[in-house]
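Progress note, project year one: complex with ribulose-5-phosphate.
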Amino acid sequence: MTQDDMKFTVAQAALKYVVKDTIIGVGTGSTANFFIDALAKMKDDIKGAVASSKATAQRLEGHGIKVFDLNEVASISVYIDGADESDEGLNLIKGGGGALTREKIVAAVSDQFICIADESKLVTVMGDFPLPVEVIPMASNYVKHQIKQKIGGTPKVRKNFITDNGNLILDIQNLKITNPKAMETALNSITGVVTNGLFANRGADVLLLGTPNGVKVVTT
Ligand code: 5RP
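Model obtained:
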């Protein structure tokens, strides 16, 4: 079974978490894309979706799924999105696709967060995947220095990439994230940081993992 087969399977499994007659949140990335394609089958069962990126909005609309602006909606029943890494506590690293800020906003609003991933994403200690941080462009050098001093690791500006919000991404390499909540908070307190890709203070509620033997459900 390929990694894409596992992503496909887990995306199909997420359909059962979709709450009918509500607005749902939809994430960004290749696993989320499999989910969007699966969701097309039940598009008449939901009111529509809030998208975590321009790319996701386009894909949803391509399937005829209504996309709402977050400010138009009173609530989101469930948010379904992928991740770059998860630990057993369902703390996540997200933002490999650069959509971390909008993803974090949609996750914050949603009643439930279902994370979908292939089994390679579950790790004991996060940090092998470089941690993305969205920064205001004029602050990128300052933020880089602050990260080196206060957090550690090696921050590098993501080349040729601008977020949907017009900002830069710093990817921090060489971290061992043993206290994700504290690191998330510390990074967010650096002036010039919009947000970072640690989803620990609001992690996932359920992790659906695609494995060669089917879908494993992980909860805390
Ligand atoms: C995008 C994300 C994605 O969820 C994450 O990068 C996982 O992507 P994929 O499903 O392609 O492996 O956070 O910003």
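The pocket of ribulose-5-phosphate is lined by residues 27-32, 81-84, 94-100, 103 (CB under 6 Å).
Residues 3-14 form the longest helix (12 residues).
No further modelling is planned for this target in the current period.
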